[in-house]
Design brief:
Blueprint (H helix, E strand, L loop, with lengths): L9 H13 L5 H13 L5 E9 L3 E5 L6 E4 L14 E8 L7 E4 H18 L3 E10 L2 E6 L2 E6 L18 E10 L4 E5 L1 H18 L5 E9 L3 E5 L4 E5 L20 E9 L6 E4 L11 H4 L5 E9 L3 E7 L2 E6 L21 E10 L4 E5 L11 H4 L5 E10 L2 E7 L2 E6 L21 E10 L4 E5 L11 H4 L5 E10 L2 E6 L4 E5 L20 E10 L4 E5 H4 L5 H10 L14 H10 L1
Parallel strand pairs: 3-5, 13-15, 18-20, 23-25, 28-30
Antiparallel strand pairs: 1-2, 1-4, 2-3, 4-5, 6-7, 6-9, 7-8, 9-10, 11-12, 11-14, 12-13, 14-15, 16-17, 16-19, 17-18, 19-20, 21-22, 21-24, 22-23, 24-25, 26-27, 26-29, 27-28, 29-30
């Protein structure tokens, strides 16, 4: 009778069971078992059955019903023991499905069995233990007392987890934050547990926090200016300048999110809300006794770590940098910018010039590795020596000439010509020209050399009274027209001045009325002004003793109004300037 299930009214059932008992087919105790089975098999109840068959799709359970119950194989976990004959507690979903089969559920049975425990934990805010089993959209599935609960991604940790898959298979303390029995929905949180623990630790840390303490923490966040370190419920700022004695461009060069670090408490405010931390303070200061390690005159080797307009910073050791100023890079090259000869990362040698330990400064030099060309300049370029150089640069006051690599001299405008008044060097030379000149003086301390072009020849004014005595006749060419006369260049380069009254026998208001630049003129020397180095000439005196025909020819060639195309200089200011220049 154990494999039979009877249906009908209670009276009919009683009669059938009594008849079966009288015929000896069943015993009265078996009839009681039938009643017990019928009482248990109701949808929504838990019953105990035996596994009768297992395959890839289904598991059949014998619960002493008219047919075996069926459970989808997917409801069983891999760890569940599925052996034929073993007992298992199941949940009755339907007494009959469309195929007349008894439908059971293992998962619902598990849920019903642990529901009270889970609900109690939820009501009492208790901590429960659960294992993360698999990753799903939005979070993770957690095995909680044998049933599935949902752990949202935002509730896994206090901060974002870079790799959630790495947590699968691990067990954690959790709290149930949401339950729905009807939908069998259970939501748990690990973050709540961590926050409570963090608040507890925060109180402990704030009570014991002291300056100069060394603590361990976790890198919580990285910014351009530093990193925030979680000390266990309390965050402190590790500024980039307190990470290392050496130069770093960004905190990420030393730290990573989630990294455990050891830090020193540097300072905090009264409420301990702002905590300053340091890492480099855990190591000896690299500048201690630096003068002994890098004495002046020592040749040191380092790496270029930064380049600025005024020089390059060289890392000599971790946290120790020296500066090679642009002026200390070369004796011979005109270094306009350090990047012209150095690059970041380059290994260089330099001489220690000066050490300021208190200010944490070391001055270095590269040019000191070679001999200074100015050390022997006196012997190489004595006054009077003739040299050939290239015009390197022009200024209003003169021209700079490179006479040897790294050594420049200056030709002042006053030393360019004995006879011509030079207002700007470009009247005679241009950049890149090769010129010969004479050394006038050398100032090795100030690194200055005075050069001259005019001293290549004798000063014509030394013999002017012999070459151009008063009353001697000369010929020249007009080079400048002034309101009060003209300037004439003679054949030997000397210049003379002819007043307007001495240009012609006829009245001429201004020279431009009858003359132009480039005209050839004959004249007589009327005066030699040695102090001011001026020759005064006269055309009128030249024609005094000439025949009438020659004088008339000159007068016809230079009649007032015949040279109208020449510009007239009438501006009083300009006139004053020209007369001053003359």
């Amino acid at each position: 009778m154990s494999n039979k299930i009877l249906f009908g009214s209670q009276e009919d059932l009683d009669e059938i069971l009594a008849a079966e008992a009288e015929l000896g087919k069943i015993k009265s105790s078996e009839a009681a078992d039938v009643y017990a089975v019928m009482d248990c098999l109701e949808p929504g109840k838990l019953v105990v059955g035996k596994i009768s068959h297992v395959d890839d799709q289904e598991v059949l359970i014998d619960v002493n019903f008219k047919s075996e119950g069926v459970i989808d194989r997917a409801e069983f976990k891999d760890s569940d023991t599925l052996e034929v004959g073993s007992e298992i507690e199941v949940f009755v979903e339907k007494l009959e499905d469309g195929d007349g089969r008894l439908v059971l559920s293992k998962q619902k049975a598990d849920f019903v069995r642990v529901w009270d425990r889970i609900h109690e934990a939820f009501e009492n805010n208790e901590i429960v233990r659960g294992a993360l089993t698999k990753r799903i959209k939005g979070g993770v599935v957690v095995d909680l007392f044998g049933i599935d609960a949902f752990l949202p991604g935002s509730q896994i940790d206090l901060r974002q987890i870079p790799d959630i898959n790495a947590l699968i298979g691990q067990e954690f303390d959790l709290k149930v934050i949401k339950v729905n029995k009807t939908r069998r929905n259970i939501v748990v949180s690990r973050r709540v547990v961590l926050e409570e623990e963090r608040n507890r630790q925060r109180g402990d840390i704030l009570d014991t926090l002291e300056k100069d303490q060394v603590r361990k923490g976790i890198v919580k966040n990285i910014t351009d200016f530093g990193a925030f370190i979680d000390l266990g419920g309390v965050d402190g700022l590790l500024h980039i300048t307190d990470m290392s004695y050496k130069r770093i461009n960004h905190p990420s060069e030393m730290l990573q999110l989630g990294q455990e670090v050891e830090v020193k408490v540097l300072d905090f405010n009264d409420k301990k809300e702002r905590i300053s931390l340091g890492m480099k303070q855990l190591k000896p200061h690299p500048w201690k006794d630096v003068a002994a390690r890098y004495p002046e005159g020592m040749i040191a080797t380092g790496k270029v770590v930064s380049i600025t307009d005024y020089g390059a910073f060289i890392e000599l050791d971790s946290g120790i940098e020296g500066l090679i100023h642009v002026s200390e890079m070369s004796w011979t090259q005109h270094v306009k910018h350090p990047s012209k000869i150095l690059v970041v990362g380059q290994e260089v040698e330099a001489v220690v010039l000066k050490v300021e330990e208190d200010a944490e400064r070391i001055s270095l030099g590269m040019k000191q590795l070679e001999s200074d060309p100015w050390d022997s300049i006196d012997a190489e370029l004595p006054p009077g020596a003739r040299v050939v150089g290239e015009i390197r640069n022009l200024a209003s006051f003169g021209a700079f000439v490179e006479i040897k690599e790294g050594v420049d001299g200056l030709i002042h405008v006053s030393d360019m010509s004995w006879t011509k008044k030079i207002t700007h060097p470009n009247e005679l030379v241009k950049k890149g020209d090769k010129v010969e000149c004479v050394v006038l003086a050398v100032d090795r301390e100030k690194r200055r050399i005075s050069l001259s072009m005019k001293h290549l020849t004798e000063d014509p004014w030394d013999v002017v009274e012999t070459t151009h005595p008063v009353d001697s006749e000369v010929k020249g060419k007009i080079v400048r027209l002034l309101d009060r006369g003209v300037v004439v260049e003679l054949d030997d380069g000397l210049e003379g001045f002819i007043p307007v009254s001495k240009l012609s026998a006829e009245f001429i208001k201004v020279p431009a009325d009858a003359f132009k630049v480039g005209d050839d003129v004959p004249a007589v020397v009327t005066e030699i002004d040695m102090d001011n180095r001026k020759l005064y000439l006269s055309v009128a005196d030249y024609f005094k003793n000439r025949d009438e025909a020659e004088v008339q020819e000159w007068m016809n060639a230079h009649k007032p109004g015949e040279n109208a195309e020449a510009p007239k200089k009438k501006a009083s200011k300009k006139k004053a300037n020209e007369e001053a220049a003359e």
